[in-house]
Amino acid sequence: MIKQFILFLVVLTGSSYAQSVYKEVAKINDSTDYYLEIGLFNKEEKKSVSKALFFTEKAIALAKKSGQKSKLGAGYLQLANVYYDVDKNELSIDNYIRAINVFDKKNPTANLALAYYGLGKCYLKKNKIAVAEIYFEKASTLYETLNFSEAIELINLQKGIINKEKKQYVIAITILQSVIENLADDSFITTKIEAYYQLGEIEMAQENYEKAINYYLLAHQTNAANKTDFSITKRILKQLSVAYEKTKNTNQSLVFLKKYTQLSDSIHTHLYSNASENMIDKIQFDEQLKKIEQLDKEKQSQQKTLRFSKLIFVLSIALISILSLLSFSLYKNNKIRNTSNKLLEEKNKELTFEKEKAEQASKARAEFLSTVSHELRTPLNAINGITYLLLQEKPKASQLNYLKSLEFSGSYLLHFINDILEINRLESDKIQVETINFNLKELIENITISFKEFIHENNTQCHLQIDSNISEYLKGDPTKLSQIVINLLNNAIKFSKNGVVWFTIKNLHEDQNHIKLHFEIKDNGIGIPLDKQKTIFDSFSQGSVEINRTYGGTGLGLSIVKKILELMDSTIHLTSESGNGSTFSFELLFEKGQKSEVIIAPKASIADGNKKIVLLVEDNKINQMITQKMLEKKGISCVILDSGEEAIENTRTQQYDLILMDVHLPGISGTEATSAIRTFDSKTPIIALTAISLNENKETLLSFGMNEVITKPFEPDYFYDVILSYLATNE
User: Fold this and answer.
1) CB atoms near residue 287 (< 10 Å)
2) What percentage of the chain exceeds 90 in pLDDT?
């Protein structure tokens, strides 16, 4: 803390005393500290702007390389101060802001305060007083926290200057006199000089020239020992000359004017000898270089034009010759072409008609499957819901087997319906491939673990091998990759009872930003006959009726895999022989990702539902009964309404902890009711209940003001997780 404060004194006040103290206290721990020290020395002692910038930039580069945030902030701060001294205000602002962004704002330091203070001075110089006041106030707060009472007086000096600019002279005089009285330390001599000078400026503005002279003389006398700060010395000498001239004291005015002129000439000579010549040479060199580049470009352009003209001439002659021959040939073939065109027009009409018929048939098929799938979900929700409720009520042993069979059949039918919807969605061109960050190894391991029970039931050995040199984090679409792997693994395990399954991921090619992976799922199961391999990826195809009866399944898994891979610009490859197993493989290109921290929210407990009231808007009586029973099992009260109109009127006067809104209601729909409720209630969570179809998607439903979507038939555990999480959040 002491080191930071002394560095603050050096940069801010320019005091030679403070510099000497800093050199005694500071310990150069590494090359970053060394270059900062050399840069500061060239800024304060040598007055060499170019060297100060050079060494400070080196310190910044080393701090970036070694990850030293505090020293990187100190480098930006020093660079900003150098630019401020040479009136590069915009560059100074840019580097002050960089310093502030690097410093740790949770642990306030003198350097952070100094950066705010410097920003305030820059904006004051731009005459943006309101902005300057904001940053001075931030600096003042930090100095009070750090108990730097003298540093606070620096802020007060700026506040006095701001009030002077606002012509609030009484307030400004009070503040500036307070600064002079409170600064007893010689380390802040420059601040005291500036305060005297500003008091003189105020008196000059009010035409109190004698008082102004007194303040200027106090500033001059206080500054007599300061041999380095030429800027403030020049200002004092100039204003003394002007003030004496205002009082008709010509002799004294000339004395100070002469001193001002001598100092200005001295500074000009010094600056010219050290920097101006190099700067002029650099400007001249840059101008010559630009002229040479321009001449070179003009020369190249002329050469291109000449070559192009020659090429055009040759091509023109060739074109004229070709056109002559073509004209003769076209004349002969004109009659033949007319006849051919008529035939083509007729064929085109036939093709267009057939294309429209095919499109209509495909659309009708998709709409039919979507409608059937959608309509099946509502009764299926009743079947699954009632089955779940009966299983929760401790049925007799004789009833348990029937209920378990019913539960399995409901799950199987739901999986079949979901596959139909997925096929329709993939064929509708409404699917987009995402590019998000994910952990490949974690994703594959989770999928493998999810098959643990299925592997045990089939007595199958499953081996997973992932190349160790594959980047753990990738960018791609983990959801679609999961769909592909799950379908292929499911088939491999299902058709390899008492057998072995190998799942291998290899690194094919890798560069700085991308990696290409080879996925292979191999089994030693029943295999696929050669004559069936061409149709195995068609929808509802399983090779034979016997296979379907023996192993079950919908015949949609491989069709889904093929269509997803086509969306991801890849192809599924099959190698198989009847009785000797099958090998499915594909390749995908991923961007390299990076590790991201994922915060997993704690799962809401069952007790979270106690004393909560939920509004259920549902027109189906069976679904009303099922949903109400499921809520009551968690101690949640339920109010039921049949229509969207009733829901709107009821929620105007009644308050609920959560609303469950069916999307398809008689009269106005659930989405329209939600939009109306959101006009007067934006806080109550609204969750959509829908047997989602091909034309519906989660994003569309959320756009009406709904917070979440639960698809019918819903899984009880997922239903409870969503409901309880929103009830806990609302609480």
Assistant:
1) 10
2) 17
Q: Is residue 651 within 8 Å of residue 615, measured between CB atoms?
A: yes
Q: Which of 339, 365, 471 lies closest to 428 in space, CA to CA?
A: 365
Residue pair 273/246 in contact (Cβ under 8 Å)? The answer is no
Q: Can you give the pTM of this predicted structure?
A: 0.41
In three state form, how does the secondary structure of 5-67 look? HHHHHHHHHCCHHHHHHHHHHCCCCCHHHHHHHHHHHHHHCCCCHHHHHHHHHHHHHHHHHHC
The alpha carbon torsion through 152, 158, 164, 166 (nearest 10 deg) reads: -110
DSSP structural state of residue 647:
H
Query: Beta strand pairing status for 514-523 and 473-476?
Result: unpaired
Query: Identity (one letter) of the amino acid at 391?
Result: L
Enumerate the β-bridge partners of residue 658: 614
**CA quadruple 65, 67, 71, 77: dihedral, nearest 10:** 80
Q: What pLDDT is recorded for position 587?
A: 94
CA distance 243 to 207: 9
> DSSP 3-state assignment of 617?
strand
Please, are residues 647 and 672 in contact by the beta-carbon 8 Å criterion? Answer: no
pLDDT, residue 20, reads 38
**Lowest mean pLDDT across 36-50, 401-415, 675-689, 700-714:** 401-415
Residue 490 to residue 493: CA distance in whole angstroms: 5
Task: Report residue 383 as tokens.
Answer: 């079947």
Q: Which residues contact 434 (CB under 8 A, 6 or more apart)?
A: 476, 477, 479, 480
**Rounded to whole angstroms, how far apart are CA atoms 255 and 43?**
31
**108 within 8 A of 147, measured Cβ to Cβ:** no
Q: Quick one: how far is CA 475 from the chain centroid?
A: 14
Instruction: Answer yes or no: are the C-beta atoms of 50 and 275 closer than 8 Å.
Output: yes
Q: Cα(71)–Cα(63) distance, rounded to whole angstroms?
A: 6
Assess contact for 160 and 195: CB atoms under 8 A.
yes
Token readout for 693 is 């179809």
Condensed to tens digits (0 to 9), the pLDDT of residues 560-582 reads 888 889 888 899 999 988 888 89
Residue 677 CA to residue 681 CA, distance in Å, equals 6
The contacts of residue 64 (CB under 8 Å, 6+ apart) are 72
Bridge partners, residue 522, by sequence: 502, 583
pLDDT single digits (tens) 79-100: 998 888 888 889 999 999 998 8
Contact 135, 117 (CB under 8 A): yes
Residue whose structure tokens are 């100074």:
92
User: What is the DSSP pairing of strand 500-510 with strand 461-466?
Assistant: parallel
- Look over the chain and give the mean of its residue pLDDT values, rounded to a whole number: 79
Q: Which DSSP string do the residues of 147-186 spell out, in sequence order? A: T-HHHHHHHHHHHHHHHHHTT-HHHHHHHHHHHHHH---G
Residues 242, 244, 246: CA angle, nearest 5 degrees? 70
Q: Report which of 524, 431, 528 is spatially closest to residue 483, judged by C-alpha positions.
A: 431
Tokens read off for 501: 């399954």
Rounded CA separation 123/135 (Å): 9
